[in-house]
């Protein structure tokens, strides 16, 4: 997963390519493009983009990328996709196949919540849970999902208002703070890319 983040580009398309062999085959045979960066004079890619040719696979990959980070189970995914739990479970296995580090981390978080009744964010803040010794399956499942969710909650968009004359200076400060959110540093193994704009309205900035 670190390699995918470092590669940048369309992360969800890259996930779909790694999950589905027929999608990977299409990319390797140059029938579709994983990404496309137009050059002067080009108005469309020479072959379809993966996100257009395999929209269903990419949507499922995108949903998995977000859902797994927040602890969603095969039961929840089966309801989202309106499929059998077995199919959702099989899809989860495909996603985890090349991401064993994610499975290991989730297992660690669940064990921590059950043993110590709390988990921690990267900055050491704790999320506490009730003792689960006599909890039923439903309550235990809720705590396990929360144990995965709590450390990874991220707000990926911030809207700020201020005077026009200092917009450029403010943008630079915001980018610096968001790319180095841990007391002025980035302790993660990947860079935190920040896309910032300023405009007269939210609509104009989109």
From TrEMBL:
The name under which this protein is listed is DNA-directed DNA polymerase family A palm domain-containing protein
Q: Does the keyword Zinc-finger apply?
A: no
Organism annotation: Oryza meridionalis
Keyword check for NAD, yes or no: no
Instruction: Keywords in alphabetical order, please.
Output: DNA replication
Q: Where in this chain does the record put each DNA-directed DNA polymerase family A palm domain? A: 3-166
Q: Which Pfam families match?
A: DNA_pol_A
SUPFAM superfamilies hit by this protein: DNA/RNA polymerases (SSF56672)
- Annotated InterPro entries: DNA-dir_DNA_pol_A_palm_dom, DNA/RNA_pol_sf, DNA_polymerase_A
Tell me where on the tree of life, at the top rank, the source sits.
Answer: Eukaryota
> A GO molecular function for this record?
DNA-directed DNA polymerase activity
Q: Name one GO biological process term.
A: double-strand break repair
């Amino acid at each position: 997963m670190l390699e995918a983040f470092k590669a940048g580009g369309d992360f969800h398309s890259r996930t779909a390519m790694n999950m589905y062999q027929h999608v990977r085959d299409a990319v390797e045979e140059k029938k579709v493009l994983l990404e496309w960066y137009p050059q002067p004079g080009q108005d469309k890619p020479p072959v379809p983009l993966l996100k257009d040719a395999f929209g269903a696979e990419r949507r499922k990959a995108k949903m998995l990328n977000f859902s797994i980070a927040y602890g969603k189970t095969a039961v929840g995914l089966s309801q989202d996709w309106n499929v059998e739990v077995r199919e959702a479970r099989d899809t989860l296995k495909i996603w985890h196949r090349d991401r064993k580090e994610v499975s290991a981390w989730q297992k660690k978080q669940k064990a921590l919540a059950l043993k110590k009744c709390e988990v921690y964010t990267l900055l050491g803040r704790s999320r506490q849970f009730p003792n689960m010794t006599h909890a039923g399956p439903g309550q235990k499942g809720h705590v396990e999902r929360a144990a995965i969710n709590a450390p990874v909650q991220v707000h990926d968009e911030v809207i700020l208002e201020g005077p026009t004359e200092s917009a450029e200076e403010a943008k630079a400060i915001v980018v610096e703070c968001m790319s180095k959110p841990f007391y002025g540093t980035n302790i993660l193994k990947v860079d935190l890319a920040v896309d910032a704009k300023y405009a007269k309205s939210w609509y104009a900035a989109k």
